[in-house]
Amino acid sequence: MHSKKKAQLDNPAYQKEQQDKQYQTQMKTFEKQRERQKVKEASPEYKVQKIKEIKSKPIKSRGLKGRNPRALEKILANKIGDIGCICCLNKKWYTSDMAEQESTKFVSLHHVEGRTKEWAHAKVLPLCAHHHDTPAPSHAPEELTPIHRGNKKEWIAFNGTEEELLKQVYDIIEEDRPWLG
User: From 3.40.50.12160, 3.30.1330.10, 3.30.40.190, 2.120.10.30, which CATH number describes the 67-180 domain?
Assistant: First the structure.
């Protein structure tokens, strides 16, 4: 009996079959964990718990380098980044034709209140390069001015205040602004 089992274990086809079974079991476990995490993150109780955790932990300053985003901030930032440049959307410059041409909406997340304060990584605006920090081409409209490379008052006159845009962004992604709650 022992030699029969040893022969079976030495068989490459049997080894491959066992590896495939183990891989399938691991993948099922991984998918179950992923689904449970998605359900957990979608629940309001989870968000409230994360907000309480964030408020209870003191923030260690890292100067201009900023701090690492927390889990809830990452979730919100991903949702915010998916909507595209908020200024282009408001001016109707970002069209469905453009969305079809590119597989991803390229945005920079502009931090409204720096990178070190509480909720700093949740208070972000999705901006295209020309609305964020890259000068627009010469043939571009006058309103296409970057927030970091020009006159900020002029940018606000063209696009609205950062607070107004932030409120609009959170309305679009249908989330509450966690720093208010």
Answer: 3.30.40.190
pTM: 0.61
User: For residue 56, which phi and psi values (nearest 5 degrees)?
Assistant: -85, -20
pLDDT in tens, 83-106: 888 988 888 876 555 555 555 567
Chain segment 39-85, per-residue pLDDT in tens: 888 888 887 887 777 767 766 655 556 778 888 888 888 889 888 88
Domain layout of the chain by residue ranges: 2-39, 67-180
- SS3 sequence, the chain? CHHHHHHHHHCHHHHHHHHHHHHHHHHHHHHHHHHHHHHHHHCHHHHHHHHHHHHHCCCCCCHHHCCCCCHHHHHHHHHHHCCCCHHHHHCCCCCHHHHHHCCCCCCEEEECCCCCCCCCCCCEEEECHHHHCCCCCCCCCCCCCCCCCCCHHHHHHHHCCHHHHHHHHHHHCCCCCHHHC
